[in-house]
Amino acid sequence: MRISYINLKQEHKILKKQILQAVSKVLDTANFVLGDEVKIFEHNIAKYCETKYALGLNSGTDALFLALKALDIGPGDEVITVPNSFVASASCIVTAGATPVFVDVCDDMNIDTNLIEGKITNKTKAILPVNLTGKICEMDRILSIAKKYKLSVIEDSAQAIGAIYKGKKAGSFGHINCFSLHPLKTLNACGDGGFLTTNDESLYIKLSKLRNIGMKTRNEVQYWGYNSRLDSIQAAILNLKLKHLDKWIASRRKIAAYYRNNLIDFVKVPTEMPYEKPAYHTFVIQIEKRDELQAYLLKNGIETKIHYPISIHLQEAAKPLGNKRGDFPVAEKQADTILSLPVFQELTKKQQDYVISKVKEFVKNNY
Ligand SMILES: *Cc1c(COP(=O)(O)O)cnc(C)c1O
Questions:
Q1: Cβ-contact 235, 38 below 8 angstroms
Q2: Ligand 1 neighbour 230 (Cβ under 6 A)
Q3: Ligand 1 mean position to 207 CA, how many Å?
Q4: Residue range 207-260, pLDDT digits in tens
Q5: Could you say which architecture CATH assigns to the domain 245-366?
Q6: Nearest Cα to 90, choosing from 339, 313, 316?
Q7: Which CATH number fits domain 8-242: 3.30.420.180, 3.10.25.10, 3.40.640.10, 3.40.50.300?
Q8: The pTM is what?
Q9: Could you point out which of 67, 96, 278, 304 has its C-alpha 20 to 30 Å from the C-alpha of 152?
Q10: 84 lines ligand 1 (CB under 6 A)
Q11: What is the DSSP-derived secondary structure letter of residue 212?
């Protein structure tokens, strides 16, 4: 049996006819930039995330960057985030001119809220928690720390669309919340895309100008801005896919539960609290002989991934920040022991059983 890590081709085979119709409709209107489909997507996705406002953007990276810009975060400012995310969670801080200050993570790969206050200085302007793997951080604690020190919260929910924490949706916690619609995310465009959500009207108005070169009207410019718009064609495709999102997430949760029940005695599996419903963008196990397991699975036709093998603070680009190996021991250890199993929504029971049997087989033969 051969199992790829994701199966985007299958997703698009099922939806191809409808997607081509949606694209064809946009071609007929020739309204390609900030057209009706973008407005409809923004309405739909704000409703989905249970927020007042949403803005369609060209990527999750620009969503994060614009969020910092809208909050006037720049040179001399510090932003607290984690070292184990996709690099965009930290690069946005640097490209905005500010300094990322890393905080180590917990067993569940999300920010260790007990370590946040120790990193707050008079330069700290915001906390940028990442809902990694599709699991929402301890937001109660983060929001109360932010309130105490008058900090903004920017949620990186690029992996967490549809996740729930204490009855609230991902994207509804921070002042500005950022999502990616990259092809590898659970809700994905046929190319790059992203969006942000907020409940703050003035931030929403400012951000809607910042993403459109700072323009207030066709001829008047209020800010030095950026071109970070979502295309109408992508929005049309996303409006269609959004109808399937809850079904996809339900399927991922079911696969995750099945993996967990069957693998819990063999490897470290993600845990779930009674007050949360993670979205399982990834299903990440932890095992000491990670590289050997990955090779063993590949030999047996199962493709897996590592999200992410090099902590951000150890990247070449991060050298000027002055962090070193040993600074974030939990994140560094996880970089060597984590492995993402296939958890895409179309994965059949037979395929899940095969993955489970091969992981078990490896553990039995190696421990
Ligand atoms: C994918 C991702 C991003 C960046 O999104 P793009 O749309 O690829 O720019 C940011 N943060 C996290 C955690 C991500 O997984």
A1: yes
A2: no
A3: 19
A4: 999 999 999 999 999 999 999 999 999 999 999 999 999 999 999 999 999 999
A5: Alpha-Beta Complex (3.90)
A6: 313
A7: 3.40.640.10
A8: 0.97
A9: 278
A10: no
A11: B
